[in-house]
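Input (structure):
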């Protein structure tokens, strides 16, 4: 659900104080825990360290991000990979077939150079 228009967007006041009157290029990473804070046009160009529960992930704010929340760009879950034993076997077969194809291509180019 969106926030009521009469209330306006939620932008953390402490975050605005940190960027007030500063140059985006000269300022380093600004650490914040305010994941719910919306990105305002004043924040464009700044680099924020948005906390994901474990560490601060670096988020460089662009014009396309205005109106979104800071937390959207700092994922809290790490996707490892689907699969397991079966997936490892498939990947091993794929790697073997790539190696065999590369060796066949190498052999065919060596044959053509010998014929000349």
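Output (sequence):
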């Amino acid at each position: 659900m969106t926030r009521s228009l009469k209330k306006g967007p939620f932008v953390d006041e402490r975050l605005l104080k940190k960027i007030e009157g500063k140059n985006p290029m000269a300022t380093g990473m600004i650490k914040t825990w305010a994941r719910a804070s919306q990105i305002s046009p004043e924040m464009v160009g700044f680099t924020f360290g948005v906390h994901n529960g474990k560490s601060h992930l670096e988020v460089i704010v662009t014009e396309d991000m205005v109106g979104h929340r800071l937390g959207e760009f700092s994922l809290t879950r790490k996707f490892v990979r689907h699969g397991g034993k079966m997936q490892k076997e498939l990947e091993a077969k794929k790697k073997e077939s790539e190696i065999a194809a590369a060796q066949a291509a190498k052999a065919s180019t060596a044959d053509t150079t010998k014929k000349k």
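Notes: The chain has two domains: 13-73, 79-108. The chain has a mean pLDDT of 89.
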